[in-house]
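Instructor's aside before we start: the two examples that follow are unrelated to each other. I chose them only because their records fit on one page, so don't look for a connection. First example below.
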Amino acid sequence: EIACITGPIATPTAQSRLAGYRQALQQHQIAFDDARVAYGDSSVAAGYRGCRDLLAGAAAFSALFASNDDMAIGAMKAL
């Protein structure tokens, strides 16, 4: 039940980090669930919004991967 907040998905960095998240899930036989992914813009505010969206969503999660420090700070504020 690991959620992810990713940066701007049009950027190679965000695409690579999302691919890494998916690969790590696969390596540990954890099913990927798109409902556990929020898309942001690499800012603190995006991390906050993304985490709030994930919390309000239908897919519960017990851990959260944020694609950068700013979004992690925003997510921590939301939590």
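Example two begins here.
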Amino acid sequence: MNKFLDALSDKLLPLANVLGSNKYLAVLRDAFMLSFPITMFGSLIVVFNNLPFFSDDTKSFLYNLLGNGQMATMSIMTVFVVFGIGYYLSKTYEVEGVFGGAVSLSSFLILTPFFMETEKGEVINSVLSLDRLGAKGMFLGMITAFVAAELYSRMS
């Protein structure tokens, strides 16, 4: 068994070193770590709202009281990740990180649609839908943040 583990570690250790030293993966890791406390807080609210020994009335009361906390944390996670990518990528190029984060966030918001469709099919303009700031917009946000922070860092 030890021979197998030694052979496996001989094969995987170089790959792990390459992946660990990649600046884009390190930036992505740090950006998600920036949003980790927000995710934990939202998760605790979800668990607290759904404890099995609470009555349905208590659960309803807690959801009305703390439901916005869940929406305010989980539904805007992309905002924190996008800012974190811009910040940490700018720091790797040794330029001002806050401005890189602001440029990345602004670029993401430019690409985010400012309209939403109601259940009846009506289009409402000039609103920012929260679903695009959550998991639904994460992939667009990550790509936008990397491109915007790269451009900002190189232009600086």
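The chain has a mean pLDDT of 87.
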